[in-house]
Amino acid sequence: MTTTIQGIAASPGIAIGPAYIIATERYVPPAEQANRPQEEVERFRQAVAKAAAELEQIRQATLERMGEEKAEIFEAHLLVLEDPDLIEAIEEQIAGEGLKAEYALHQTAQSFVETLRDMDNELLRERAADVEDVAGRIMDALRGRQGSSLASITQPCVIVADDLTPSDTAQLDLNLVQGFVTRVGSRTSHSAIMARSLGVPAVVGAGTQVMEITAGEELIVHAGEGRILVGPDAEERARYVREREQYVARQRELARLKDEPTVTLDEHRVELAANIGNVEDMQQVLDNGAEAIGLFRTEFLYMGRASLPSEEEQYQQYKYVLEKMDGKPVVIRTLDIGGDKELPYMELPEEDNPFLGQRALRLCLAHPELFRTQLRALLRASKHGQLKIMFPMIAVLSELLEAKRILQEEKERLLGEGEAISESIEIGMMIEVPAAALGAAIFAPHVDFFSIGTNDLIQYTMAADRMNEQVSYLYQPCHPTVLRLVKLVIDAAAGHGRWVGMCGEMAGDERAIPLLLGLGLHEFSMSAAAILPARGQLAELNYASCQEWAQEALGLSSEQEVLDLVAARLN
Ligand code: PEP
Ligand code: MG
What we know:
Layout: E1 3-6, E2 8-11, E3 14-21, H1 37-66, H2 68-81, H3 84-97, H4 101-117, H5 122-142, E4 157-161, H6 166-171, E5 177-182, H7 190-198, E6 202-204, E7 218-222, E8 227-230, H8 234-255, E9 271-276, H9 282-287, E10 292-297, H10 299-302, H11 311-324, E11 329-333, H12 361-366, H13 368-381, E12 386-391, H14 397-416, E13 426-431, H15 434-438, H16 440-443, E14 449-452, H17 454-462, H18 480-494, E15 499-502, H19 513-519, E16 523-526, H20 528-539, H21 543-554, H22 559-570
The structure holds phosphoenolpyruvate and magnesium ion.
């Protein structure tokens, strides 16, 4: 019988093949003495040389396949091998204390890793993972084992692992590896990011059930839906083989639209933008022909670390994204912490209803120093491209005016210090709170644009927690009530000559796209992988017809009626 495991969709596509299990247990050597310490030092040096040669090979391959940035990981690993503090300390333990090379390596690397992990500096903490990775490689060389079991793959397969490190992912032979599945991880974990940039179907965070998969067992990974089928029957297999063929053919067709404008049958143009969470997402953005960044969720720069990112660190990240977009618009949203996004190191008070609490801009206004640091980084980065700054979670005008006042103060301060700042930064706000949607006309004179955040707007309109499965049936993006709110916002903006985008999941939902087009949305911002399918869909739609359908939809009484209407009109 087929077992189905549900995980997180990390990178779309369909993979079919036998499971290849990667064992992740680390070897712990026994405490042994060496008979001839000098020979043991020599053996250690040879292992280091072998590890260096392997790393150089991987670095080259990564450079060719994935570019400079990904190859830098291995440059960092090579530097660890050249670090005299580490290497000489190990040699001293072997020569001075007569320890076996394996044991000296294990002891010394372990103590380095622990010290680095305790450091108050993000970069040094990241180095701990590098040292661990490199020590593992030297250990394999000492024990005469292949550098990684990934290197021994000779047949097409689907990899099953606890997690994959960046160096594992970079070594995948894409002629053989059909996809991968991991027990841990999230959409923003390193393995997921690498999978997206390689275009390998991947499901991450699938839980302990994946560890029960046995080597060679047949797997089907429907990565776009985060689903893994273990031991499918012949019928299921045939169905997914067909689906995979269709997927591949469609991708090939869509790739032709990469550098095309987004235009409907009747020549109406809209903009397709990408949502990003960090700089690693940029490769996908460029590969999928995004015309802009419609949402940079900057909170991810603040998460998964032990202290706040400095102004300089943020400046470098914003500059990178603006430069990569080469003059195309980049909407950067100020910090949106709270709700389900926590920053443990800030030790914020517990709230009974965090989604209704001091989140996003509310938090920034209550902690002005935190906010000012980010605004300074953004203003300084503005000279590197077409920056648009966006404030999240606004409910009343005074919040917007206060945020703009602080921004203006920081701008004047920087100009006073001789800093160059772009003259054409647009200022916008998200529409996530029903009060902001209903009151859009109040805000319109004070902003350059709106971006509708439907993930929150629908949660607050329906009073249904977006994290709670029990009420997920109330997430109804095509409900006439939601469409009316969208129309209110677009009409209010039009009255003041402002443009309107949407950066919630609804913008990339193929069922909603004809309606949003018909309501007059200007910019659709979505995950990079959704852009080309949306461009293909829009190219087959007629703007004038969509305007009529949207008008009709506004008068209906349920989401199902709206979906039926669109389906009937499309046929
Ligand atoms: C939204 O609420 O629609 C949105 C884009 O913001 P986030 O999903 O980050 O809350
Ligand atoms: Mg939101």
